[in-house]
Design goal:
This protein is of the alpha+beta class. It contains five helices and nine strands. The longest helix is centred in the C-terminal third of the chain and has 13 residues.
């Protein structure tokens, strides 16, 4: 799967949620996410622009856990990259397996996230611990699909929502690391 994602810094969650709902989007869920990021014993993911994480999501009393690999970004305008994800049963055991074979946990990223659906877009408002407010708009495509039109449609949607600057192609992990 190819993930085409563009994130932008925003000023106010409530104002943006009103705009999102105003264009006909539907709020689908609200959840807490904790992402544990790992580095490889073979290559430095910060240098290869890859990511490996264990994500735990909590929505009310339901917890879901996934291990995700994200390949290097394909272009510079958006975070377009290969993504492979699978469910696991236990974050601690996943962490233990990865550390036992040489991977090293580098940072936890925690956020409260509101999701919205609009046409073929997934929109999220992200309250990330340690960062200003952000919004992400994403489209998922099958491997090998030309992502150019999807990327353009994301920027068009941002413009429709009144966001014309503040775009960020780095991950929340990188943004937090750069604040050190």
């Amino acid at each position: 799967m190819i993930e085409v994602e563009v994130k932008a810094k925003i000023n106010d969650f409530d104002e943006m949620e009103e705009k999102i709902l105003g264009i006909g989007a539907v709020k689908t869920k609200v959840e807490f996410q904790e992402d544990l990021y790992f580095n490889s014993p073979i290559v430095d993911f910060a240098k290869t622009d890859e990511a490996l994480r264990i994500r735990t999501t909590r929505k009310e009393d339901v917890e879901n856990i996934f291990i995700t690999y994200k390949g290097p970004k394909i272009n510079k305008e958006a975070k377009t990259r290969k993504e492979v994800e699978m469910a696991i049963e236990n974050a601690e055991m996943g962490n233990d397996i990865l550390e036992s074979i040489g991977f090293r946990q580098v940072r936890a990223v925690r956020k409260n996230r509101k999701y919205f659906e609009y046409e073929n877009f997934e929109i999220s408002l992200d309250d990330v611990e340690g960062l200003d407010p952000y919004m992400e708009i994403e489209i998922s495509l099958p491997d090998g699909t030309d992502y150019t039109e999807a990327q353009k449609s994301i920027f068009d949607l941002y413009e429709k929502l009144g966001v014309v600057d503040g775009f960020e192609t780095t991950s929340y992990l990188e943004l937090l690391e750069n604040k050190k």
